[in-house]
Amino acid sequence: MIGKPVGLAEFLRVFDRVEELGQPAVELRYPRRGPGRRPRGAEDPYHAITRWCEVLGAAEGPLAGLRVGVKDNIAVAGVPMTEGLAPALSTVPSGDAAVVERLLDAGARITAKTSISPSDPVFGIPRNPHDPRFSAGASSAGSAVAVVTGLVDAAIGVDQGGSVRNPAAYCGIVGMKPTHGLVPTYGLAYWDHTLDHIGPMTTTVAANAALLEVLAGADWRDPHCTWTAPVRARYTGTPGEGIADLRIGVVEEALDPVGCTAGTLEAFERACERLRDLGAKVEPVSIPLWSDSAVIWFAVLTSGLMAMAGSNGQGYGHLGRIDVDRLATVAGQYRRGEREVPWLASILPAAYEYIQETRLGVPFGKAQNLRLELRRQVEHRLDEVDLLITPTTPTGPELLDELGTDEFLLADYVRAMTNTTPANLTGHPALTVPSGPGDNELPTGLQIIGRMFDERTVYRAGLSFEDPQFS
Prior knowledge:
- Residues 57-458 form the Amidase domain.
- It is an enzyme of class 3 (hydrolase).
- Its EC number is 3.5.1.4.
- The chain is α/β, with parallel strands linked by helices.
- The chain has helices at residues 8-20, 98-105, 141-148, 165-171, 205-215, 262-277, 293-310, 324-335, 348-359, 362-384, 410-417, 421-426, 455-465, and strands at residues 49-56, 67-71, 109-114, 154-158, 174-177, 198-202, 247-251, 281-285, 387-391, 430-437, 443-449.
- Strands 1-3-2-4-6-5-10-11-9-7-8 form an eleven-stranded mixed sheet, with helices on both faces.
C-alpha cells in the first residue's frame, strides 16, 4: 500500500534531530601550543615558511626532538592554516591531522607550517636554494626549501600530481609519494580523495623511510578507499641488502616522448649506469599511456575539484570523519564569494561547465577509464620487473621571472608533470632521490616506482643508489 507523501517540513525534522545530537569529540593529545607567528626579515630568505610554531609531542620516541615542517594545507590544531590562500581566508583547525598526531606521538616537534604556492603573492615565491633565480618547484616547494636550508630537519608534503616529488627533485632532496591510502589524509585540505597523498621529504633515504614508518597505517577517520587495507611495515631495515637481484624497467615513454632535456637525459643515464654497477638488471619497458598521463590527470582533477567545491571541501562518497567547524567556515567563504576553486580558479569552473553542457560530461568518464587502463599497464610491467624508473621531471626548474607570464603555457605545465602524474593516477608508490646536476647545473631526481604497498623494495633501491656524488 502506498502511503501519504512526506512533506518537506516533516522531512526536515530529520535534520533537526541530527542538530540536537551531540557532536562526537576527538581528544587533542598535546594541547599545549600557540598560534605561532609569521617569519620576520631574514629568518626565511627563500620564502619557505608561512608560520613558525612550536608544538611538542611525546618526550620519547623514534623521532624524538626532530624538527618537522608541515605543509600549510595540513591541520595543526590552534595554528592558522592558509592553504595557499590570503591570510584572511585562513581557518584555525580544532584538531590535528592524523599525520600530525603520529609525528607528535613519535616525539617529533612541529616547528613550522611551510609555503604551498609556487607563486605566492602574500608570503613570497619559494626560491631554489641552489640558485635563487630559479623556481623551487610545485606546491610542496616550501617543504623542500625548508629541509634543504636546515630550517627544519624534515618536512611533510602533499602530492596530488607530483607536488612532493617535483620540488624534492628540483631542490636535491628525497621525497616519497606512498601507495594511495597507506598514509591517512584526515586533516588535509582535500583536492580529490583518489589523488590525495601525504608523504615525507628529507635529506636522506634512511630518514625518509623512518618517517614513513611513523606516518603509515590505517586511521578510522580517513576518507581514503583502498583496494587493500594499509598496514604498518618496516622500511628502515633495508641498508646493506643491495639490489643485485632486482630487475628494473626504464619507462621508454618517460624520456624523449615527454620532452626530456639533454641535461636531464644525461643525468638519468648516469643513474642507470650506477644501478647497473650495483648489480641490478636495467632494461627498457613500454607503458603506452604514460606520455598522456598528464592530460588524463587534468580531466580527472577537474571533475574531482568541482565535486570538492560543491561539498564545501569534503568530497562525496567516503566514510571519513568531517571537521564540522571547518566545513561551516569554508561553506560560508564559498557563499560570500571569498573562496574560489583552488588552482586555475578562473579557468577550471568554466571548463567543467562547458564539458558538462556541450559533451554531457563524457570526457570525465573516459578519463576515468583511461586511468584504469594506465594502472593495468603499470601493473602488467611490474609483473615483469621489480621496479620502474624515470627522470622525476623532464626538465630543470624554470627561471622565476618566466613564471606567470604568457611564456609559461599550460603545455609547459603538462610537460613538467608528465612523469609524476602516473603514480597519482594509479596509486603506486614513487620515490625521488637526487641524481646529480642537470639543466643549469641544478639538481635532478631519479624516480623509483614500485608495486602497491611495496615501499620496502622502493627504499631498498633508493638506499643502494644514494651516494654523496648524487646529492
